[in-house]
Amino acid sequence: IISADTKNKLQIEKIEVSEGISYTVKQGDVINNKNVVKLTLGINSGGKTGSYKKNIFVYTNDSRNSVIEIPVTGEVISSVKVFPPRVFFGSVEPNTTHDLQVKIIFQSGEVPKLSDITSDMKNIQTKLSSLENESGYLLNVKLKTAEKEITIKDNIKIFYNNGRDREVIEIPLYAKVSGK
User: Fold this and answer.
1) How far is CA 127 from CA 138, 157, 163, 180, in A?
2) If DSSP codes are grouped into helix, strand and coil, which group holds residue 164?
3) Interatomic CA distance for residues 100 and 82, integer angstroms
4) In the 8-state DSSP scheme, what is residue 10?
5) Interstrand relation of 12-17 and 50-60 (parallel, antiparallel or unpaired)
6) Which tens digits make up the pLDDT trace of 84-97?
7) Are 73 and 53 in contact, with CB atoms under 8 Å apart?
8) Whether 22 contacts 44, CB under 8 Å
9) Distance between CA atoms of residues 5 and 13, nearest Å
């Protein structure tokens, strides 16, 4: 809530927000004989976890305090756990096939429908199956190596939509293909 002692109705003239922050404004209330504006914020971390620090700048018609800077801080905790947290094939020989499994667990208990799995590497195949006793999926990852020596660094991206904007789980993948 933003308030002012001004005799005029407090007006928001402009709001500048950082990327990932959305807002709604409710103008014109009076609380404790002060003109107030209620500003409600929404945060979209883009699927990234960790510390979150942004600023919002609110420009008002209050001549004594025309620009209000509001710091927004928080800690984004993932509701998705990936075990192991990366697909690590290590050193492998050319012209071989390797399989690994990754569990994707949804902490909320609600398992969203996955809409797409992508990898930039053509020699990576993926297959999903539901976990029987846990809220999540089992991801099978198959690597078919080529003849040449190469280091593979990629991300498997799993897109899902649980009634909100498309979200993504990124799982790093690594393999070093080298001769005998």
Assistant:
1) 8, 13, 23, 29
2) coil
3) 13
4) P
5) antiparallel
6) 999 999 999 999 99
7) yes
8) yes
9) 17
